[in-house]
Amino acid sequence: MNDIDASKGRLQQSVCRWCYSKLSVDQLAREVAARGMAGIDLLAPEDFPVVKKHGLACTMTTSHRLEDGLCDPQFHATAIEAITSAIEATATEGWRNVICFSGNARGIDRETGMRNCTNALEQVLPLAQKRGVTLVMELLNSRVDHPDYMCDHSAWGVELVRRVGSEHFRLLFDIYHMQIMEGDIIRTINQHHQAFGHYHTAGNPGRHELDQDQELYYPAIAQAIADTGFEGFIAHEFVAKRDPLAALTDAVSQCIV
Hints:
Elements: E1 12-16, H1 25-34, E2 39-43, H2 48-53, E3 57-61, H3 76-92, E4 97-100, H4 110-131, E5 134-138, H5 154-164, E6 169-174, H6 175-181, H7 185-192, E7 196-201, H8 218-227, E8 233-236, H9 244-254
């Protein structure tokens, strides 16, 4: 039996579905609920009934392909269609987060890519606002995992949030990815937390569990996030080298503040 209860802390914790592919959604949902967590990240609408059965939320709904994103107009129609469907499905359940991506640059310069992202977002944000949903663009590293991804630094993403100027568009600050690209995690959280609508965790290097073999100290990071008054979700997105459920329990414990 695990005796961890994430609901006792100030942060709402969840976990990314893809990291537990050996478990069914139902099995994972039982484990998540047993730890007092809020829900599961990166689910599609067909999984919604399962998490609801366990009293959980989908804390982030999937949408379009990561590489084929909003910085490139050739993908706008497909991406906007996927985002629109995700907004409607998420809003129907009373949930609030839909993921989106800048996508890969494919030779597009950063200023043009930002304008393209802004144009695409302006097409879907009226629906998001009407339905009470927030679109959240993920910050990813382009050095190790996602070569050519455009939204790969917090400064670029924060500027995009400023230009879009909507409370229904925020960034997913992935701590693992931004440690690779720029470090200075806690200072960035303190300075730009108003632009961050969601957080992901993982150890670096390797995207493994939050243990002594990696360089980030998550109790202090979790404290910094909580101290900003953050009311969203922090989702664990690591691939464990050992027992994945024991690693999840440990990660949850480190982020109870």
